[in-house]
Specification:
Blueprint: E1 10-14, E2 20-24, E3 32-33, H1 41-51, H2 71-78, H3 82-85, H4 89-103, H5 123-132, H6 137-156, H7 183-192, H8 198-209, H9 213-216, E4 224-225, E5 228-232, E6 239-243, H10 246-254, H11 273-286, H12 294-307, H13 312-319, H14 324-330, H15 336-359, H16 362-366
Antiparallel strand pairs: 1-2, 2-3, 4-5, 5-6
Helix pairs in contact: 4-6, 5-6, 8-10, 8-12, 12-13
Protein name: Tyrosine-type recombinase/integrase
InterPro entries: DNA_brk_join_enz, Integrase-like_cat_sf, Integrase_catalytic, Integrase_recombinase_N, Phage_Integrase
Pfam family, one: Phage_integrase
Length: about 375
Amino acid sequence: MKKRWLPEWVSEYRDRHGKPRYRFRRKGFAPYAFKAAPGTEAFRQEYAACLDGTVAPAIEAGADRAAPGSFDDLIARYYRSPDFLDPGETTRVVYRGVIERWRNRKPTNGRRYGEALVRDLQPRHVEKMMTDMLPHRTAANMLRKRLKALMQFAIRQGLAKTNPVDATRPFKVEGEGFHTWSEDEIAAYEAKHALGTMARLAFDLLLFTGQRGGDIRLLGPGHVKGKRITLTQEKTGVTVSLPILPPLAASILATPSKAMIFIVNGLGRPFTRKGFGNRFRVWCDEAGLSECSAHGLRKAAARRFAEAGCSNQQIKAWTGHTTDSEVARYTSAADQKLLSDEAGDKLMANLRKRLANETSNPLEKGA
């Protein structure tokens, strides 16, 4: 009798090189090829995403009969392309949500957008779709970005010659996204949640690693080696190795756990992505910090690095950002008075140095 050790609906096969591969196949649902090996945390996350329909969605009746050249046809191809599959699971969930809501929407003619032909899309159509979403400017801009990506893919597929979204403009959005924690807010949270509590450990992991909540909730002793934490970011695939700073070390040691991860819920189990965000929201509210969030601590960590005079390269090595523009968004809340004082000191030091050189140069004196 064949030994069954793989989860339900998961089977093993060999690729053309003879290497074992694993796939999810469940009747009525799209198949999915695993990227991670069974027994790993990454495999567990992929399997959970298959079960909830994130990466192996239910197959709609007649979906395979999408009209050639329609958006239904284009989207089906897009979901099988590297454009969609290469980003992390969290990003794919967001992308799919935006695309599915849009293609199932029915304008005044009663037909879904998914039934429309790709070649018929014009800039005025995109602008009308965005206008219909007001006052939700951020959501409208997100739709524009997904349509732009779809049309770029359509050009490569031969379903379009130009990208009509390029002729449109996004809405201006006031604000800078998630609120960056101030030092007073950090102190207020620490005063409410003492060392040794799960609330404080989650806070310290976020602040003293500068990582996203989705990565923090799965950190455990297995990520620690040689007084460093090494992790691969779920969203970007970037691997970072970070020294464990003294405040974080004290917090970890003060919060003993028999689990394989640091942060667990009341049942001793890992938080789900949504569950962790909701629980951290409660912890912030208990400290009277209604504007603060888990992601705001990532921005606070970047702000602290900027205020300490760290370069963009040093900050990127810590946060895992890949471009200077991303770092600029996260460090925009750096203390302006402190930075301007430092800039003024550097300017005056340089002027004094230049003046000293000029007055000690006999040629300059003669001139």
